[in-house]
Amino acid sequence: MEKIMFALVVTIALLPGNTCTNAPTPSAPDRRLPPAASACEIPTCASPPCAANLVGDVGCTTVSGTEKYNNEQKSVGGTVATNAHIFGPFEAGFSSSQQSIIEGWGCTDASVAYDTAGGLDLGIATAKVAKACNIVLPRVEGTNQWKAIVGYCGGHTSDYHFHRDFACLYLEQGGHSTAVGTIVGTQKIYGKWEDFDNRLLPLLDACGGHFGPTPDSPSTSVYHYHAQDRAPWTVGCLGPGAGNTLVSVATCRALYTSTSKGCGVTPETMQIKSGGGTGSADLSVSYTRWCPCFDAEDKNVLPIVELPALSTTSISYTATIVAGNFGGLASAGISSSVPVAGTTSSSSGTTSSGSASSAHSALVGQQAKFGVLFVAMIFAITVGLPASP
Ligand SMILES: [Zn+2]
Ligand SMILES: [Zn+2]
């Protein structure tokens, strides 16, 4: 950890535009000389479960991809190189260093989006910026200009690091998504589908992993991670649990007991836009900065509603989305609900909709309105807290 933090500090000092908090200006990214990238370091975890880095590498990608949209960092057709950093869910914060970036999202007064405390996952950070700036995020302008905190592929900044999706690193076809990176040891992270042809999404533990066959281990069940359309997006911790078990939300939280940068931080009330930043409703939600352990209701505050994966032997559930990355940016944007613990979560059966469906109905209108089909990034907005007036 210290080593990685040191490396980050050195990186920040030597390479302007190299971290979440210091990204290049959006106006002319392709005319800059490419900065030297810092090397990605695969974490170690001698006795899992382990805490993952809250800022810094939680893994490294193992394939390259091609960007589908212009964004602040890449142009259509640009390459996302392999061995890119995989970060966890959190941004380190926004300050005047990101003024031009934030203005590039369409925020006329960037200062309203500043958030120096950091520790917001990509989902709530996006919804909070959308509310503060009164804009829709993520969105597509014109035919191919992507507006969001991270690009369509799921990463950003000149020292490219993924926070989510890996959308251009795998194809939505066939069965289990292919691997996009290594998290720790031989553990890999895959695209979001457990079985694309049958529209099955994986049931995951609090770390973001589960046991099952993979394209790399077709006949032996192994612990592996998936990209997911909800926090922690990549990984919340390094699993599995003791004795080769799934990691509960409580076990995850116990890995991050810090009261200054962990699940011991006092929750705050956040003002956000619905639909993960694509909706029009104003919501007020409780959120714990720097706590990467999200429950079945996509909350990282107490009390915990345990994840459905912990109470079933099924490893997947039927998705109601047709296809699509970036929170379900899809050819048909329908809801991608996670089943509630204790209810139906069969790998071949139906899916219970949980608490996300109402947020979704509102979202569908927005999808049509803006000509972009997003599936909700389901997180704390669905916890049933009252909307602010
Ligand atoms: Zn970042
Ligand atoms: Zn899987």
Shape estimate:
globular
Order of helices and strands: HEEEEEHEHEEEEEEEEEHEEEH
What's the number of domains?
A: 1
Radius of gyration from the alpha-carbon trace, in angstroms:
19 Å
Structure annotation, total helices: 5
Estimated share of beta-strand residues: 15-25%
Name the ligand types: zinc ion
Average pLDDT, all residues: 79
- Estimate percent helicity: 10-25%
Model regions low in confidence, pLDDT < 50 over at least 5 residues: 1-19, 21-35, 326-389
Main β-sheet, spatial strand arrangement: 9-10-4-1-11-12-15-14
Describe the structure in your own words.
It is a single chain. The termini are far apart. This protein has helices at residues 2-14, 99-104, 122-133, 249-254, 357-370; strands at residues 57-61, 65-66, 79-80, 85-87, 90-91, 120-121, 139-141, 145-147, 155-156, 161-162, 179-184, 187-190, 200-202, 209-214, 217-226, 268-273, 282-287, 316-318. The longest helix has 14 residues, at 357-370. It is 13% helix and 18% strand. Mean pLDDT is 79; it is low at 1-19, 21-35 and 326-389. The strands form six sheets. An eight-stranded mixed β-sheet has the order 9-10-4-1-11-12-15-14, with no helix packed on it. Bound molecules: zinc ion (2 copies).
Describe the structure using short key phrases.
disordered C terminus, globular, alpha+beta, single chain, 389 residues, disordered N terminus, binds zinc ion, two-stranded antiparallel sheet, eight-stranded mixed β-sheet
TL;DR?
The chain is α+β, with helices and mostly antiparallel strands. The protein is built from five helices and 18 strands. It has an eight-stranded mixed β-sheet with strand order 9-10-4-1-11-12-15-14, with no helix packed on it.
